[in-house]
Amino acid sequence: MPIVLDPDTTFEVVLQTDADKPQPPRFVFHYLTTREWIKAARLAESLQDSKDGAEAIEKIADVVSAAFVRVENAGDTGELLDILTPGELIELLESVVARIKPTAEDLGK
């Protein structure tokens, strides 16, 4: 079964600033489909054409939100833009982009 069709095939990201906490918030993501990757690539290419920093951050949030499933160990949370700093949002983007395919660990869950 393609991994994007399997709701149990996800990956988790813990922000570097939370890594040493006993129960850090874990951001859970699903793998992007090829169509979502195309959209993500187009958004990334258009970052330099953003009219300002706010537009660039919104584009980054669109890519991260496309793969976002939930936050665990964080209580009641809102939208990603309401709970993350721009630096944390970029850290999540880098983690999502790095997971273009599942690792052996992901498949062994």
Supply database-style keywords:
5 helices; three-stranded antiparallel beta sheet; 109 residues; alpha+beta
- Helical residue percent band: 40-55%
How large is the share of residues in beta strands? 5-15%
Q: Alpha-carbon distance between the termini?
A: 15 Å
The major pleated sheet works out as: 3 strands, antiparallel
Radius of gyration from the alpha-carbon trace, in angstroms: 14 Å
Order of helices and strands: EEHHEHHH
Strand tally is 3
Number of helices: 5
> What spatial order of strands do you see in the largest sheet?
1-2-3
Residue ranges: pLDDT <50 for 5 or more in a row?
A: none
- Characterize the quaternary organization of these chains: single chain
Average pLDDT level: 84
Number of domains: 1
User: How would you sum up the global shape?
Assistant: globular
Secondary structural class: alpha+beta
Provide an overview of this structure.
The structure is a single chain. 13% of the residues are buried. The chain is 45% helix and 13% strand. With 109 residues, it is of the alpha+beta class. It has one domain (3-101). Helix 1 (34-46) runs antiparallel to helix 2 (53-67) and helix 2 crosses helix 4 (86-98). The longest helix has 15 residues, at 53-67. A three-stranded antiparallel sheet has the order 1-2-3.
